[in-house]
Specification:
Layout lengths: L10 E12 L5 E11 L2 E7 L13 E4 L5 E4 L14 E8 L2 E9 L2 H26 L3 H4 L1
InterPro entries: OCRL_clath-bd
Organism: Coregonus suidteri
Protein name: Inositol polyphosphate 5-phosphatase clathrin binding domain-containing protein
Length: 142
């Protein structure tokens, strides 16, 4: 694994939440998701075994939050009867050089806050990109 993915002193773990990856086979795999800020850049870290965070705190998948990054909350399926089910938030994540992930998070304040933080990081990246495009000198455009 690339050593640049190691957690270092210049990183700030903004927020972490437990979830499950929904595989195409229907199988659910536990995951630990972390929003990491590194020198002003944001990364979504996905740890394959949340219990291994103590012995090996290196994410198996680091998805940079950039112009290629997408995170979408999937719509809930409507039920005809009202059952007391354990409610979850389903999200779909796509990123540069990363497989598409479908993740399930507990529908609680922590997970909603995590989702909002990731969306804000994406908006911040887009805002920086727009600002940098505005300040390109005219002579460089020709």
């Amino acid at each position: 694994m690339d050593s640049s993915l190691d957690f270092g002193r210049d990183e700030n773990d903004v927020q972490t939440v437990r979830g499950q990856e929904l595989r195409l086979s229907g199988q659910k795999e536990p995951r630990l998701l972390s929003l990491i800020e590194r020198s002003g850049e944001f990364i979504l870290g996905v740890l394959a075994n949340p219990d291994a965070v103590v012995s090996c705190p290196v994410p198996q998948l680091s998805i940079p939050i950039n112009s290629h990054f997408q995170i979408v909350r999937q719509a809930e399926e409507a039920l005809l009867i009202d059952l007391p089910l354990k409610t979850c938030i389903k999200i779909r994540v796509r990123g540069e050089k990363a497989p598409e992930l479908v993740l399930e998070l507990q529908d609680n304040e922590r997970s909603r806050s995590f989702f909002s933080q990731v969306k804000r990081a994406k908006q911040q990246v887009e805002s920086k990109a727009r600002k940098s495009k505005r300040w390109i000198p005219l002579y460089r455009l020709r």
